[in-house]
Each structure stands twice: as structure tokens, then as C-alpha cells.
Specification:
Layout: H1 13-16, H2 20-30, H3 32-40, E1 48-52, H4 59-65, E2 71-73, E3 76-82, H5 92-95, E4 99-101, H6 108-112, E5 120-123, H7 130-139, E6 144-148, H8 154-164, E7 170-173, H9 177-183, E8 188-194, H10 207-211, H11 218-235, E9 236-246, H12 255-264, E10 268-270, E11 280-281, H13 296-301, E12 306-308, E13 318-325, H14 331-342, E14 352-353, H15 372-400, E15 408-412, E16 415-419, E17 430-433, E18 436-442, E19 445-448, H16 450-455, E20 463-467, H17 473-478, E21 483-484, E22 491-492, E23 500-506, E24 509-517, E25 520-523
Parallel strand pairs: 5-6, 5-8, 6-7, 8-9, 14-17, 20-23
Antiparallel strand pairs: 1-3, 1-4, 2-3, 7-17, 9-13, 10-13, 11-12, 12-13, 15-16, 16-18, 18-19, 20-22, 21-25, 23-24, 24-25
Helix pairs in contact: 2-3, 9-11, 11-12
Binding site for S-adenosyl-L-methionine: 125-131, 149, 194
Organism: Paenibacillus antibioticophila
Domain SAM-dependent MTase RsmB/NOP-type: 38-326
């Protein structure tokens, strides 16, 4: 560590905790004058940001509602700087999924991926899910988002964020890139790789990352990044785009990885970034790859990458590269989509659940095979249960929603989901969420899921009730309290009685479910989500 190194005694207390090897390397890369400017960024406070969830609310409408003073982030139209001391996570609008709390620089990678409604997008290293929610907002409910993380623990936060932000067309996986490539070869036309890295750009935001830097070495990270990029090429459709991003400064994890990818994949090219104010180009002169000198034309392409420096922007350090496959889009992609649409939408489906793999069928000569009538009885019983679940969902949708959501209704772990993909595409994968969770059946009754509420618009429910922020109703609901609510406040379709499931909203935006009876709302807000 650098505490005892006299060369950096003029730097602030935070900088004194930075690894000495890191400081020496940054000084060599930047030069003395630029390095001093870089070091001065550690004297500045870190910047907090929120990004408006345009799946639920437009930027203009949010400006009118916002309880915070907003300052625009130059590289993200839906992003704003806010005062971190205001605690934006402690407001009902956050629990309604109207905005995501996100470091400003972290909003840049999705912006340069140029996502359009209808795209098929893979977020390969997605947890905790901020960039996935940004992708989903750009898809506007059209197309497919497959969001994945290799860590089972991290997929918990990922799945929750997908649900909180009302995303209907996402599948959450807990898989290796190789396993996804076996099921989705050359399928996605947009891929985001927010690669695991040494995290040098986040030292100001998270001092623990500086302390862990030597353990999460640059060399270890480059091996992972190299493997991920190689598999991503197998996942991308002809003519598609990959955005590779890191939150580190090291050329070995940035320009070197892009150079090596171009060397191994001659059908790809770097799409030069349109640099926003404060963004800097990549550095071909920092390449350390042993083949860089003999392939200058490939090395020169890394100048089209982008670097975000904390002393040049109001944000932390990031690296961005846009890689485009130079082939044309195949008609075969459209053929797959037609096959998907032709798949039966209301048939049950079984998937391999994360941490709960499917059991192998008994092999010949091993184990006892049940009599045929017992196997038939079990299968018949399972079919009845699946049909009960599907009938329960369809009855609920008919009685409580103005229109049933579109998609493939699939069964997963005793629950009903609406999936953007046909059942066969997920077979054999470790699936955390096969789609939008809509509910389950208990004792013959359908119970709507919390994600169903968050994925609806307020005007899609046949019964709804809006709670006041000023009078504390919204917070009391989020704490799980039972509320008094007059019949007159239950807005409902003509001829419908107030009793039953009610979509609870704040300023017209859904928070969850409640059950109205005799002037009271029984709170259905999940215990694990409650305001604390």
C-alpha cells in the first residue's frame, strides 16, 4: 500500500490508501501533469445518480413528479444527478419502480448499444441488474431480454430488480456463457458484456475495492474477460453488436482485450464512439499485447473505444467498446421468431431450476421402473395440477384485468409465468425466472404475484386504489400495515363490486396488491420487500 511512499504525500487521505503499484502505473500511463489532475479527483465527492424507468413513466412526467432536484447526465437522456444525502431509495416512487439508483458513468454502456424495440438482447454479466433495467426500458416491452449472472447469490438481486421495474419480457438465468451459447447459438443481435474486472475506476466510490485490488488481480481478470468475449462471438447473430465495458483503467483489461478479440475474429470491427463531453478516446499506444506491433491496423481501431475519467467527467472510471459483426442479418432469425409465435402458449413446461437440476431418467437395468398404471396416474395428476394453475391464472386475468398479457404461459416450480420465449428454448438451462411472474394457486385459489402488479399500468386493473404520500398512506402500505379505505376510493370497472383484489397505486403507479372488504385494505405487500 502507498501510505509510506513519500512521492504521494501531497495527495489526500483516500489516495494514500491506494495500492502503490496502481499509483506508479497510472503515473507512467498518464504523465505527470495529467496524473496530478487524476489524483485530484479523489478530493471530490462521489456523484450519485438516478435513471428514470421509462417503461413506467416518461422523463417529462417524472420531472413534474420528482421530489428531488435534478441535473441532467450528458450521456443518458433519462439519467440525472441527485444529492446522495436525499436518500432516493427512501421514497414511495422508488418502490413503484419509477427510477433506478445508478452511478452516472454506469449508464453509458447501454446508451452506446443502440437498443431498439424488438431487439433480442443478452446481458451476459448482469447482476445486480441496473443495466438490464436500462435495456428493458429501451425495448419498451418488445423483443426479448435474457439477463444472466454466473453467481447464484447475485441472481437474487438481479431477479428482484427485474421484478421491481416491471419488466415483462425478460428471462433470468444463472448460467455459464458456454451453456447459453449451446441453447442460443448466434441468436442475439445485441449483447452487453459488463465484464468482471479489477475495479480500478470504482476506488473512489468503494474504498474496499482498492483494498481488494491485489487479490482481484489484473491478470486473473484478463483470463475471464478473454473467455467471455470468445463465447459472446458464438452468441451474436450476423450483423449484430457487442458492447464490452469495464470499470477499470488497465490497458490489459481494455484495449488489449479488444485488440485480441479483433485478431481472433476478423469479421468484427470497432464502431468508433461518438464521444460525449468529457469522454476520451482509447489508447492504441498503451497496448501491451505481443502481436500489437505486427498488426497496427487492428491496434489503431482501439482508438475508437471510449474512456471515462473521473477527473474529466462527473462520474467514475469506465471503458467502452462497440464491436460490430460485419455480416448481414439472416432471414433464419425471422424464421425462429415465427416458430416461437406458433408455439402453443398455454401448455405447461418444466425447466431445470437453479440449484435444483432435473433428475435423470432411470437407465436400462438400473433401478426399479414403476408399473405403467402408476406412471400414467402420476402423469395424469401432474397434468391436472398444471391445468388448475393455468385455469386459475386465466380466470384471474379475466376477472381482474382489462386485458390478459400476451406471451407464453409456462409453469415453473408450481408458479405461472408469462415468458417471451417458447418453452423449448430454456430446456436444460438453470433458469431463475422464465419470464414475468404472475402468480400461483393455493387451496384452489389463484394468488397474484407481486411482480404482476409492478408490471401492470394502473389503468390495466379492473379495481385500483391510489394512496396518498402526503398523508402517509403509501409508506404505511409499504410497511405492511392494514389500511382503512372507503368504498368510494376503489376505482373499478362499471358494474364491479369493490370487494376483492385491488391494485394499489401511488400517483397512479402500481405498488402492489391489496384485498378490499368492508372499508379495509388487507395488505398483500410481500414481507421481504417491506419498507424498513
Amino acid at each position: 500500500m502507498a501510505q509510506n511512499n513519500q512521492k504521494w504525500m501531497g495527495c489526500d487521505a483516500m489516495a494514500l490508501q491506494l495500492p502503490l503499484e496502481f499509483l506508479n502505473r497510472m503515473n507512467a500511463l498518464l504523465g505527470e501533469e495529467e496524473f496530478q489532475r487524476f489524483m485530484s479527483s479523489y478530493d471530490k465527492p462521489r456523484f450519485a445518480g438516478i435513471r428514470v424507468n421509462t417503461l413506467k413513466i416518461s422523463v417529462d412526467d417524472f420531472r413534474k413528479l420528482s421530489p428531488f432536484e435534478l441535473r441532467s447526465i450528458p450521456w443518458c437522456e433519462s439519467g440525472f444527478y441527485v444529492d446522495e444525502g436525499l436518500k432516493p431509495g427512501k421514497h414511495p416512487y422508488y418502490h413503484a419502480g419509477l427510477y433506478y439508483i445508478q452511478e452516472p458513468s454506469a449508464m453509458a454502456p447501454v446508451e452506446v448499444l443502440d437498443i431498439q424495440p424488438g431487439d433480442r438482447v443478452l446481458d451476459l454479466c448482469a447482476a445486480p441488474g441496473g443495466k438490464s433495467t436500462q435495456i428493458a426500458a429501451k425495448l419498451q416491452g418488445e423483443g426479448v431480454l435474457v439477463t444472466n449472472d454466473i453467481s447464484a447469490d447475485r441472481t437474487k438481486a438481479l431477479a428482484k430488480n427485474i421484478e421491481l421495474y416491471g419488466i415483462r419480457n425478460a428471462v433470468v438465468l444463472n448460467e455459464t456463457p458456454e451453456a447459453i451459447a449451446r441453447s442460443f447459438p448466434h441468436y442475439f443481435n445485441k449483447i452487453l458484456i459488463d465484464a468482471p474486472c479489477s475495479g480500478e475506476g470504482m476506488f473512489r466510490k468503494d474504498e474496499d475495492m482498492a483494498r481488494q485490488w491485489e487479490r482481484h488481480s489484473v491478470q486473473k481478470c484478463t483470463i475471464m474477460q478473454q473467455d467471455i468475449l470468445r463465447v459472446a462471438a458464438q452468441l451474436l447473430a450476423p450483423g449484430g453488436m457487442i458492447v464490452y465495458s469495464t470499470c477499470t483503467f488497465s490497458p490489459e483489461e481494455n484495449e488489449d482485450r479488444i485488440f485480441e478479440f479483433l485478431l481472433e475474429n476478423p469479421d468484427f470491427e470497432v464502431v468508433p464512439l461518438k464521444l460525449k463531453p468529457g469522454f476520451q478516446p482509447g489508447h492504441p499506444d498503451w497496448l501491451t499485447h505481443p502481436l500489437a506491433a505486427s498488426n497496427p491496423e487492428l491496434g489503431d481501431q482501439t482508438a475508437g473505444c471510449g474512456r471515462l475519467w473521473p477527473h474529466r467527467i462527473d462520474g467514475e472510471g469506465h471503458f467502452l467498446a462497440v464491436l460490430r459483426h460485419q455480416g448481414r442479418h439472416l432471414i433464419a432469425e425471422e424464421m425462429f421468431l415465427k416458430q416461437s409465435e406458433a408455439a402453443e402458449p398455454l401448455r405447461g413446461s418444466s425447466f431445470k431450476q437453479a440449484k435444483e437440476p432435473l433428475k435423470e431418467a432411470p437407465r436400462k437395468g438400473k433401478g426399479k421402473e414403476k408399473p405403467r398404471h402408476q406412471r400414467h396416474s402420476k402423469s395424469h395428476s401432474q397434468d391436472e395440477h398444471e391445468q388448475e394453475l393455468l385455469n386459475g391464472w386465466m380466470d384471474f386475468a379475466a376477472n381482474h384485468l382489462l386485458e390478459a398479457p400476451q406471451g407464453h404461459a409456462v409453469l415453473f416450480g408450481g408458479h405461472v409465468y408469462i415468458s417471451p420465449l417458447p418453452k423449448d428454448k430454456l430446456k436444460g438451462l438453470k433458469v431463475v425466472r422464465p419470464g414475468w411472474y404472475v402468480g400461483t394457486v393455493h387451496h384452489g385459489r389463484f394468488h397474484p404475484g407481486h411482480p404482476l402488479a409492478l408490471g401492470l399500468r394502473g389503468d390495466e386493473a379492473k379495481r385500483r386504489a391510489d394512496l396518498s404520500i402526503e398523508q402517509g398512506e403509501a409508506v404505511r402500505y409499504l410497511k405492511g400495515e392494514t389500511l382503512e379505505l372507503s368504498e368510494a376510493r376503489v376505482v373499478r370497472s362499471p358494474g364491479l363490486l369493490p370487494k376483492g383484489y385491488v391494485l394499489i397505486t401511488v400517483s397512479g403507479y402500481p405498488l402492489g396488491w391489496g384485498k378490499w372488504q368492508d372499508g379495509m385494505i388487507k395488505n398483500e405487500y410481500p414481507a421481504g420487500w417491506r419498507w424498513t
